[in-house]
Amino acid sequence: MQFTKDEVCSIICYGLMFAALFKALQLKGITF
Q1: Where are the domains of the chain?
Q2: pTM of this prediction?
C-alpha cells in the first residue's frame, strides 16, 4: 500500500494522540 505524505502524518498524529490518551487513562487507574 502506498501512502501519501499527508496520510502518513495523520496516521502518526492519531497514533500519538491515542497513545497519550491511553497512558493518561492508565495513570488515573482505569484499566481495559
Answers
A1: 1-32
A2: 0.59
